Amino acid sequence: MSTLTRLDEPQFSPHTLNKFATLMAAGNGYLGLRASHEEAYTDQTRGMYLAGFYHRSSSVETTELVNLPDILQMRIELDGEIFTLISGSILDYQRELDFASGELRRRVVWLAPNGKRYQIECQRFLSAAQHSLVCSRIAITPLDDSANVTISSGIDATQTNSGRQHLDETSVRVFEQRYLQGCYRTLDGSNEVVISSFCAVPAESCSSFYAKNRRLTQHCSGKIGKGEAFSLVKTSWIASSLDADYHAQTCSYVTINKLIQCVEQGYDSLLAESAAVWQSYWQRSRVIVESENSQDQRALDFALYHLFAMTPTHNERCSIAAKGLTGEGYKGHVFWDTEVFLLPFHLMTQPEIARQLLSYRWHNLPGARNKASKNGLQGALFPWESAWSGQEETPEFAAINIRTGLRQKVASALAEHHLVADIAWAVDAYYQATRDDAFMRERGIELLLETARFWISRAVDVNGRLELHDIIGPDEYTEHVDNNAYTNSLAHFNVERAKHYLQQFEIKDVYFTRQADDFLERLYVPAASGENLIPQDDTFFRKPTIDLTHYKQQQGTQAILLDYSRAEVNEMQILKQADVVMLTYMLPGKFTAEQMQANLDYYEPRTIHDSSLSKAIHGVIAARCGRPEQAYAFWQQACLIDLGDEPHSCDDGIHAAATGAIWLGAVQGFIGLTVEQGELHLNPRLPAQWQSASLPFYWQGARIHLKLTPQQVAISVFGKNPVTLHLGEKQVSVLGSQTYLLADFFAPVTGSGTTKGAKP
Ligand code: BGC
């Protein structure tokens, strides 16, 4: 395997503190830890989050992922000078996140205001092997003279979510003059978290402990000779009442014991144990590209690093938040992002995780049924934003207009219902890729049926035709419209799949089948016109257009809403993100290459890409249209959503869906691996900049490895049975290793940049 890339922070800058705290955040799906520095900075949002650990601080607030007490902050005093990079000078600075091991390392040479130089080296990791474990190490070396060093660190429960406090301190203690422990309970009493820490300090240093103002702190000081290192190794163990093995009476004792075992094992051995888990993850999932642009591999590694970090695999009551576990954006809520943008990666690399993500929705069926019935509908209407309870968590109001003092209503919870069909789409994708009959019988079919029942009850009869009214499609700049093409098409797909699986699994439901047949026959599904254009909704084509150049240049910032009200934007042909283009992505077999092309060309100029979910999908469609150059441009821009130069691109957390979309762009776009009607298709369209691309994946129980160059594809199937693959219009059956010349399957690329014969 080629060497994993790293993410470097080129220099310390107070302007990008939060961006890098997000980009370099650690995570293991159970915990997430922002990469804030050890020393505090006023503008820095520090954060540690536990998957599923939500709380609502008051009836006027929204449920949010709780920012837990801080265990990483350190107050460092060197010969009386407080270490901070905004005083003195930085003589040398390196910070890097090592994707291979998940370790974050920093080395600084600091010239303090007292004129002396100190080297400060910090390392930390969140264990991928023991999900409750956080280790950090700091080594301070005075370079000019001996030095007096004081480090204060502990468990700091003054941490809040932008001022909202969620936790009561129930006990703080120091055991055996060594082990710090803080126990906290959410204000509503529903959850507890227990944090235990130990600091290993030099034998000749002296330590004292204090508990004051929600801080439990250990002060440790000592004198150190020039060129010698004063080091502190901090080991912490975090447990919560969400853990399967949590017992309120014994957790204090049990977690201290776990901590002691880790302390005895030591930093290096714990890191090696964690790195071994990372290594098997990379072997199982890494997409490797040989590209003219080294940034391409880094973007893929970055995306996969975060896909691991954000995904809770320990508890199927948790799913992936829109910002993973890296920040408080969207309050830690779960959106359609999970099923459509993130699940496909897991499905192909570790299908049991995809199953778990679908199980999260299955467990939340009661909330979805409740929302449907509250709206006078049947079946399951999943909440647009979801957390632990499965109830609707979308805030009623969004940002305030400070000129009027009025808050803007959020309409998504009321009308953005495509999520229901997106979940059904993911259930179908899961079954196609796994043939997991047991899951379908226990959970999948129920999800399909309940979502289908929702659509059937949601449709209105207009002179014999069924329509879906008052809808918001994926494009959130166009609200409350009738017959959004994406939603109608996916609703049709949802009901058709429910009926199909009922038949396949020989489940008799005469009433549902009759209703489904009627719905499928009478639902209006907006179709392509003579010019191949699909109307986004009933009124879209009648609306005026404006020049969007200015807003496209500022995409991702919603700058248009500063110049126009939402109501005005709604009355123009302006898209926030892919909508009809998204539809052609979701149901590829339903559209011809000409239709995909025409809609891409029509809608893209009208799309600002203010959502991070947009660019990479446009890239996939451009690739499917046989336009690798255009596809590559979209993909590269998608890779820069978080990684680009914009200093605040991800202050409040990673764009989780965008990381999944980086993988989608490479795998479904360039490598051209897709599933259509349950069959695996490979239609490669490598960009000219790529000499090769390879990836491991699973398909219906077989482990497959694929390596693609512009001339050929080498496929290895590790399993008992051959795997059938559609290469263009032909079929191949592979067991063991086979290499195919692409020229035998695909016509060469023509001068116009379209691949003749390549099936969309
Ligand atoms: C997008 C939604 C997305 C949400 C969370 C919004 O800006 O329009 O499609 O689900 O962000 O990522």
Automatic annotation (TrEMBL):
UniProt similarity note: Belongs to the glycosyl hydrolase 65 family.
Active site positions: E476 (proton donor)
A GO MF label: carbohydrate binding
Source organism (scientific name): Buttiauxella izardii
Record domain Glycoside hydrolase family 65 C-terminal: where: 675-734
Residue ranges occupied by any Glycoside hydrolase family 65 N-terminal domain in the UniProt entry: 9-241
Gene3D superfamilies listed in its UniProt record: 1.50.10.10, Glycoside hydrolase, family 65, N-terminal domain, Maltose phosphorylase, domain 3
Protein name according to UniProt: Glycoside hydrolase family 65 protein
SUPFAM superfamilies according to UniProt: Galactose mutarotase-like, Six-hairpin glycosidases
Organismal lineage: Bacteria, Pseudomonadati, Pseudomonadota, Gammaproteobacteria, Enterobacterales
Ranges for domain Glycoside hydrolase family 65 central catalytic: 301-663
Signal peptide: none
GO biological process entries: carbohydrate metabolic process
Residue positions binding substrate: W336, D337, K576, Q577
Cross-referenced PANTHER family: GLYCOSYL HYDROLASE-RELATED, PROTEIN-GLUCOSYLGALACTOSYLHYDROXYLYSINE GLUCOSIDASE
Pfam families: Glyco_hydro_65C, Glyco_hydro_65m, Glyco_hydro_65N
Keywords: Glycosyltransferase, Hydrolase, Transferase
